[in-house]
Amino acid sequence: MKEITYRLEGLGCPDCAQKMGLILERQKGIQKANVNYATGKVKIQYHADQITLEEIEKIIAKTGYRVIEKR
Amino acid sequence: MEPDVRRPGNHLTMLKNLWISQQKLIITTISGLLIVIGWLIGRLEFSPLLANSLMILATVVAGYRIAISALHALRFRVLGINALVTLAALGAIVIGEYWEAAVVTFLFSLGSYLEARTMDKTRDALRKLMELAPQVARVLKNGEEIEMPAEDVQQGDLVVVRSGEKIPVDGKIITGRASVNQAAITGESLPMEKTVGDSVFSGTINEAGYLEIETEKSGEDTTFARIIELVEEAQGEKARSQQILENFARYYTPGIILVAVLVYLITKNPITALTLLVIACPGALVIATPVSIVAGIGNAARQGVLIKGGEHLEKAGKIDVVVLDKTGTLTVGQPKVTSVWVRSGSETDMLLKAAAVEKMSEHPLAKPVVEYASLKGPLPEVTDFQVVPGHGVAATVAGKTVLVGNRKLMLDQGVIIDDAVEQRMAAEENLGRTGMMVVEGQVILGVIFVADVPRQDALTLVSRLKRSGVQKVVMLTGDNKRTAKAIAQQLEIDEFHAEMLPEQKVDVIKTLKQRGKIVAMVGDGINDAPAMATADVGIAMGAAGTDVAMETADLVLMADRLEKLSYAIGLSRHTLSNIKQNVSFAVLVVLVLLMGVMGNVVVLASGMLVHEASVLLVILNAMRLLKYRETN
User: Fold this and answer.
1) Which of B109, B86, B100, B105 is nearest to B28 (CA)?
2) Exposed, middle or buried: residue B528 (CB in 10 Å: 0-12, 13-18, 19+)?
3) What's this model's pTM, rounded to 2 decimal places?
4) Least CB-packed of A10, B212, B446, B514 within 10 Å?
């Protein structure tokens, strides 16, 4: 299990932030996605053998947010 | 190469960048303008068709992105606020309420633009702190200064820092002296004098002076980097009440759609049903807690106080009892001369003789006497020095035997202690002081009293804590009862426990907790770790540079200053009441809106206005926490 944190831009409303967490958690290979509206960050626990970072970033882009920093 | 703005291609990229950074604002403005024009045309009854078309256009402009987001989410089978707004706007257009549709989407888009703006300000509290992180270091190698990124400096490297520069590593001063501003770490704005052998921290500033520092930690291992990391983690960690709300919100949106459908079926009024969709968005309620917490933690971080997360902050806001360890926390930890009583001869003469004898001793009570007397003049020559273990010291000064010690020493040497001396000794001992008699030949010259004295900042501590809402202050110490009582009385402490062993400290805290109190334990984070872990809130003081303390405590005061304690507790309490204000306000707004809808007072546009305004008010209320300072 690996962990990555993205800082996002465009998290306009708290509800959207939370829904993005839900979407991410429904992906195969993602164990947990914790989105914090207040800090604008999402912390994702994932299985590296089931999903790649590019795939995760693509999903984030599809939901309409931009990754501005990752760690 | 410099970008050439005159070329048309670059105008395009400039426009594109503007669009990317400001699209929310641009969209909102355009749709707002369209609404105004449409409304004017409608009012002038110039052409209803044109007016309505403009309204629909405004809806499309403002609503396009909302609808796309909603579709994205729906593809993943998630129903969110975007879907609610889209449904409401579509519904309004279907039933011919073009004005409502346009205003709802416009207000939603304006609201989310303003929210993002104000939220960025709140998030900035931490970002400003991070900007303080030093970027470059100058390392001295073979007599040459080499500039390199701060994180590439190796342990043991010698770093040069000149006046006005930022210290790029954690380490020890090898050469030089400087006044160092440690605000980035401890939140204290007054600079400290530092010289050879002192520790310095990355992120602090050399205000005046020259330093060569041997690197101990660099990059991510520095205290400064750890602070940033801990604060970021803390802001991400959710308070319990927040988690409950988020779980609730998960089923809320689908539930609202169901209710709206039912309302339509029952009342046959499409506007009521659509309004319900709009106003039921849980915006203010969901952010009520996290925004306050982020603002609170952000304020604390700038004052050198780390709060390890929302849950700890909530607990710290409820502290009833503060338990402190005496030595090092409430007292200086080193005995000092508190008073000198002269029986015969001059005070200076007595002090100099006593100090001359004590200078040879290694007893902990000798040092304060020597320090105190050294200010009075040069110490006389001493011969035949001897230690009487547990009793005192003896030596020959200017041909006469001088004894410095306790009653036992004097009794053994046949010195008669008369009533006047005995009374004086007893009186001072009841104040927690230790008397050292000074005898020349068989004559008692006087008594020097020493004691561990309270720290300057401890004198106002209890009243400050009481003002921040704490009911009771308890002191624990391994010292004897008399000393403990004297300090406790002087500092107006409510309750004290003396002669404590470490495990007994834990028991005291357990007992307090059993009485239903929320207990905070303040310590250095290392010796007091078990007691801190037992308490509801463990507070480490003076933790800059000690990783263990930073890890184990729930609240970390980087500076070794007691004012930070009452500040931290006061801030936590303010944050807690801020959260309560926000939550009750948000609930109230939802209730009022619901009643408004039932009574047909609130319709689509006004519902959205109230909703967005309530979200903004919640954020603005939380931002007040950024300005919190302790009132004196």
Assistant:
1) B109
2) buried
3) 0.75
4) B514
- pLDDT over 60 (residue B1): no
B587 neighbors B253 (Cβ within 8 angstroms): no
Query: Which residue, B232, B128, B223, is CA-closest to B182?
Result: B223
Angle among Cα B203, B209, B213 to the nearest 5 degrees reads 55
Confidence of residue B5 (pLDDT cuts 50, 70, 90): very low
Residue with tokens 């882009």: A61
Q: How many CA atoms lie within 13 A of B423 on its CB side?
A: 4
Please list every residue in chain A whose beta carbon sits closer than 8 Å to the beta carbon of residue B290: 14, 36-38
Closest CA to B212 of B183, B188, B238, B178: B178
- Measured between beta carbons, the chain B residues lying within 8 angstroms of A34 are 236, 238
Residues 6+ apart with CB under 8 A from B534: B506, B509, B510, B513, B521
Contact A14 B80 (CB under 8 A): no
Q: Return all residues near B49 (Cβ < 8 A) that are at least 6 apart.
A: none
Distance CA B409, CA B363 (A): 15
Alpha helices in B457-562 (DSSP H): 461-467, 481-491, 502-514, 529-534, 547-552
Contact B82 A16 (CB under 8 A): yes
* Tokens encoding B425: 């000794």
Cα A37 to chain centroid, rounded:
12
- Contact between B527 and B509 (Cβ < 8 Å): no
**How many residues are there in chain A?**
71
pLDDT digits (tens, 9 = 90+) for B215-245: 999 888 888 888 877 777 776 666 666 666 6
**Vertex B95, ends B93 and B99: CA angle to 5°?**
50
Question: What residues of B act catalytically?
Answer: 325
Q: Locate tokens 């609730």: which residue?
A: B248
Pairwise CA distance, residues B457 & B562, whole Å = 6
Enumerate the residues of chain B whose CB falls inside 8 A of the CB of residue A23.
73, 76, 78
Tokens of B92: 């309004």
Residue A71 touches chain B, beta carbons under 8 Å? no
| pLDDT of B269 higher than 90 | no
Reported ipTM = 0.71
CB contact, 8 Å: B629 with chain A?
no
Q: Give the one of B72, B77, B249 whose C-beta lies nearest to A18's C-beta.
A: B249
Report the residue of chain A nearest B298, measured CA to CA: A39
- B556 near B549, Cβ under 8 Å? yes
The alpha-carbon gap from A51 to the nearest alpha carbon of chain B, in Å, equals 17
Question: Is B281 in the A-facing interface, judged by CB distances under 8 Å?
Answer: yes
Structure tokens at B454: 């309270």
Spell B4-28 as b/e; 16+ CB within 10 A means b.
eeeeeeeeeeeeeeeeeeeebbebb
Which among B85, B114, B101, B113 is positioned nearest to B27, based on CA atoms?
A: B113
In this complex, which of B69, B78, B236 lies closest to A39 when CB atoms are compared?
B236
Q: How many residues does chain B have?
A: 632
